[in-house]
Write a structure and sequence with these properties.
The chain is mainly alpha-helical. The protein has one domain: Winged helix-like DNA-binding domain superfamily/Winged helix DNA-binding domain (Arc Repressor Mutant, subunit A). 67% of the residues lie in helices and 9% in strands. It is built from 8 helices and 3 strands; from the N terminus they run αααβααββααα. It has a 3-stranded antiparallel β-sheet. A hairpin with a 7-residue loop joins strand 2 and strand 3. Helix 3 packs across helix 5, helix 3 packs across helix 6 and helix 4 crosses helix 5. The two termini are 18 Å apart.
């Protein structure tokens, strides 16, 4: 199926503008949690399951020393604990605390809030957009 690349470029630019420029929720997350977005991202990942430091670094696309700084700060805040891995004593495993899980949930709540233009769409248009997005992310 042949498409006009200019239309695809315009659509992509519009999506990026909507999500990253006009309604970027990352600053709101940082302000609400009083931390950098990478720390909030780490909490959100760890809230799904405990991870080794190596796994967390891969999830965050950060190197080991920076991941250690992030985790050290989260430990100081009481949001995660770092323990020896039960199956491999050479590794450390990071687990969220109840406070960390609550902070991660707050971040997800903020990030999941649809922007007003999306809420203002006609119901039929919203259903169509839902179908299209589902096809794009499958």
């Amino acid at each position: 199926m042949s498409h006009d690349p200019q239309i695809a470029t315009r659509v992509w630019h519009g999506l990026r503008t909507l999500v990253l420029d006009r309604y970027d929720r990352r600053k709101e997350v940082c302000d609400a949690l009083d931390m950098s977005f990478i720390r909030a991202k780490a909490l959100r990942r760890l809230a799904t399951a405990p991870m080794t430091m190596r796994q967390l670094a891969a999830e965050l696309s950060t190197d080991a020393p920076y991941t250690t700084l992030v985790v050290d700060d989260l430990v100081r805040r009481g949001l995660v604990v770092r323990d020896v891995h039960p199956d491999d004593r050479r590794q450390k495993i990071v687990t969220v605390t109840a406070g960390g899980a609550a902070a991660a949930a707050r971040a997800e709540e903020i990030l999941g809030e649809p922007p007003p233009p999306l809420l203002d769409l006609d119901a039929a248009d919203l259903v169509t957009l839902d179908r299209i997005i589902a096809a794009l992310v499958q």
